[in-house]
Amino acid sequence: MEFTHELVLPNEDLPFKIFLFEGEKGNYFRKKHWHRSIEIFAVFQGKINFYLNNKLYPLNTEEFLLVNSNEIHSISAAEPNKTIVLQIPFNTFEEYFTGEQFIQFVHKNIEYDTEIMRLLKKIFATYQKKEYGYALQVKGDYFYLLYLLVTKYREKNVTSHMLKTNQRLNRLSVITNYMKENFREKLSLSELAKTFGYAPSYLSRMFQKYTGINYKTYLQNIRLEYAFQELLNSNHTISETALNNGFPNSKAFSREFQKKYGLLPSAYRKNNIENNEKENIKMI
Fold first, then answer.
1. For the chain, which ranges sit under pLDDT 70?
2. For the whole model, what pTM was predicted?
3. Quick one: CA torsion of 37, 3, 175, 17, rounded to 10 degrees?
4. How far is CA 236 from CA 93, 106, 278, in A?
5. Do 6 and 38 contact (CB within 8 A), yes or no?
6. CA 198 to mean position of chain CA atoms
């Protein structure tokens, strides 16, 4: 397997996902992967090596890289760094597609790079503080950033070669997007295959080839991601969280959760509450 598909979910309270790069401590390598979302990696301290379609792009302080939907990439960070990652859902740009559900951004308007970096830093700082009304400020800056991407960085001259290269992974991305919208339902492989006009065996091979895992595991990962967010951001019981996110019962949810995170959901929630309390005490 040369590359895998990455599951990207927006922050619960925002129409996008923004976070500190997980390789901030250095000694980190993320193997080749791809996703439906548009992604921006912005380095504010240190440096990282970014590999996009097998080409090396060294990123130094105050530099960023645009990653298009379905572009295969990997990241290497040997040293500590502070890198902000913004992941934008692909359908955000549907009004600006350049034929066949396609849009591509190119890094050619260097004169606007400083403004992009300023917006990313401001969005992240505002989101971290979460002061009263923060969502309005964050969304305002976010939509201005989208405006710059569409007007200053979008590739207008799309070739047939570019479309053909994109189609290979785009088919599966449409299916995984459907799964994210319907993961709470009983979504069997045969039903999904019928919806998209594939034989179950063909769809099964497609998942194994392009995501590196089987269909059932991929669906469970979607459910776990959403259940994880609900666990930490609500007062719902473990059973309620399980049923709300497509698991048949709390036992099945707890088993999968512990397999991925190393703790039972109840223990993970307790640790998170205790850590938040400690942080609040420090702030006081």
1. 1-10, 99-100, 109, 158-169, 276-284
2. 0.64
3. -30
4. 34, 44, 23
5. no
6. 27
